[in-house]
Design a protein that fits this description.
By secondary structure, the protein is of the alpha/beta class. The protein is built from eight helices and eight strands, in the order βαβαβαβαβαβαβαβα. The strands form two sheets. The chain has a four-stranded parallel sheet with strand order 2-1-3-4, with helices on both faces. It has a four-stranded parallel sheet with strand order 6-5-7-8, with helices on both faces. Helix 4 runs antiparallel to helix 8.
Length: 254
Amino acid sequence: MVLLLIAHGSRDPRHAATVAALRQAVAGRRPGLRVEVGFLDFCAPSVPRVLERLAAEGVGEVVAVPLLLTRAFHAKADIPAVLAGATARLPGLTVHQAPVLGPSSLLTNALERRLRQAGVRDADRSSTGVVLASAGSSDPEAIAVIAEIAREWRHASGWCAVRPAFASASTSTSFPRTEDAVRALRRAEGVRRVAVAPYVLAPGRLPDRIAAGARGADFVADVLGPAPEVAALVLRRYGEAARVAPRLAVAATG
């Protein structure tokens, strides 16, 4: 069985480079597991092209893990449509779509790692407010998930405050942009430092917008990228889908 990482893609070359680093981190954790990458847009190779190549090589089963942090439009519509279209032309290939990566405690652990790397000290938690900065979505379910992650992280971590923020202009106006959240935390009681934690996997246009909005913060963490926790989570999602796959095959033939 082959693990296919499905990334969104970007015109920014840093995006593909970060995805490649994540692929390497995943493969390094599971020697012997073949790990491929396909992109939905902008970058090569495309998901259909990767699947065509795998089918030509005689691969029979693939687990596709979306490199997405929330279950929004790409996970609900784009990826299933791309996979269905490709497999319809490749009758010898079965593709199992795994769940998206988030939410997961491993992702909040990765956020903590990036904040420490940015210079935030554990001793300052009680006086530090964190902006959980997502790329954003027009999907209400995805927006609600980000808000819930912020609430749970604040409750479990000891940060003075954790506030969600969004880079995308299409996001509901009930949540602020990064710069709005930074200003609000500056005014919040008990907050002496403000840190911005981008809840995004790879660089690109929207992560750059997050970084621009974070200029008033004391600390700005890097994107999650190939953090060890992210690589471990990818393999967890792969394992979940791979365990279900045999049962699906039995049900289909039974």
